[in-house]
Amino acid sequence: MWLKFKRDWEEPESAVTPEALFKQRRNIIKGFGVAGAASLLPATGQAASWFGGDDEEPAAIVRRALNKTDIPPLHNDALTPEAKAISHNNFYEFGTAKDDPVKNSRQFNPNPWSFTIDGLVEKPLTLDLDDVMAKMALEQRIYRLRCVEAWSMVIPWVGFSLSDLLKQVKPLSSARYVAFETLYDPEQMPGQKSRFVGGGINYPYVEGLRLDEAMNPLSFMAVGMYGKTLPAQNGAPLRLVLPWKYGFKSIKSIVRIRFTDVEPPTTWNILSPHEYGFYANVNPKVDHPRWSQASERRIDDAGLLGRKRIDTEMFNGYGEQVAHLYKNMDLTRYF
Ligand SMILES: Nc1nc2c(c(=O)[nH]1)N[C@H]1C(S)=C(S)[C@@H](COP(=O)(O)O)O[C@H]1N2
Ligand SMILES: [Mo]
Questions:
Q1: Which residues have CB under 6 Å of ligand 1?
Q2: Less crowded by CB within 10 Å, the N or C end of the chain?
Q3: CA distance 95 to 259
Q4: How far is the CA of 89 from the centre of ligand 2 (A)?
Q5: The whole model's pTM is what?
Q6: Residue 162 CB neighbour total at 10 angstroms
Q7: Is 98 helix (H, G, I), strand (E, B) or coil?
Q8: For residue 84, what are the CA distances in angstroms to 106, 157, 245?
Q9: Domain edges within the chain
Q10: Closest ligand 1 atom, residue 182 Cα
């Protein structure tokens, strides 16, 4: 698997590549996606570095982003206590109970991590996450997270705008959707080894967005939360955060991003198509076949999980930012 590629490849490269070419290539990669340079970049399987001379630890990079944001909090919500956000999780790769992910991910090692961006793009890339973190403008975003199971949290994420990443690979004009894939590694993820532990999902977990949804300024790639790098159970080291959609769209531990011209298959839709649609926009007027979506239990600091029941808002309260994406669509049909 490519997870091991960086270490194996970095040294041989500097050893066998003539120095001038090596330097030139590093400069080109620094420019990240500069036209003409792309042909020198490896396709898939090798981690492309774009060193900015920044050797900071990921934890320090995340901390430094805390007082920066392009999008200030859009609501006056109290944060969910960190202890709850990192212990009440859905991450079926580690088991289906809410406390399984924290218990079963202790051995999970997300370092080093690389991920691929390919499909309908000018040049596919495999990127090393440490380099991406050093290069991207990291910021903190406070977002609501509304699970389709009718509980919700308010979480301070640290990361970067998804569009800033996607723009770099120059999608082809034929690209209309973006597909995402979680790591497949049954040795580290017990839910992938056993259908009983993993809830009957056919792994790897996959998700998708229409291109205009992916490019919306709210679409966010998180590498941290509460001022720290992401814990394994919350999707280390890199996960999507889409605050106007049900939580299952916010796919964790991403290893591949692929541009396509057809709507990509998505895990929960495959599992139960009449209950979980491709769009999965938070919508208090479209109930889940087995329960109401009109209200939700906000997990706050009251009691063990928080007892406050509040009304669910259309698009989870982000309508001003995203409603235009769906203006001619019947959202009862495209749920
Ligand atoms: N790979 C993967 N991503 C996933 C899930 C999962 O089981 N596997 N669960 C989803 C669901 S249902 C929710 S509500 C959120 C939960 O994120 P959190 O545990 O960080 O609160 O992650 C989403 N991303
Ligand atoms: Mo969820």
A1: 89-93, 145, 147, 182, 205, 234-235, 247-248, 250-253
A2: N
A3: 30
A4: 8
A5: 0.85
A6: 24
A7: coil
A8: 17, 15, 21
A9: 13-326
A10: 1
3-state secondary structure of 35: coil
3-class SS string, 219-278 = CEEEEEECCEECCHHHCCCCEEECCCECHHHCCCCEEEEEEECCCCCCHHHHHCCCCCCC
Class in CATH terms, 13-326: alpha beta
Residues 32-41 have pLDDT tens digits of: 333 333 333 3
Give the closest residue (by CA) to ligand 1 atom 16.
90
Place of tokens 């990192």: 86
Q: 208 near 266, Cβ under 8 Å?
A: yes
**Nearest atom within ligand 1 for CA of residue 252:** 3
Give the CA count within 13 Å in the CB-facing half-sphere of 241: 30
Residues 191-209: tens digit of each pLDDT = 999 999 999 999 999 999 9
Q: How many helices (H) and strands (E) does the chain have?
A: 11, 12
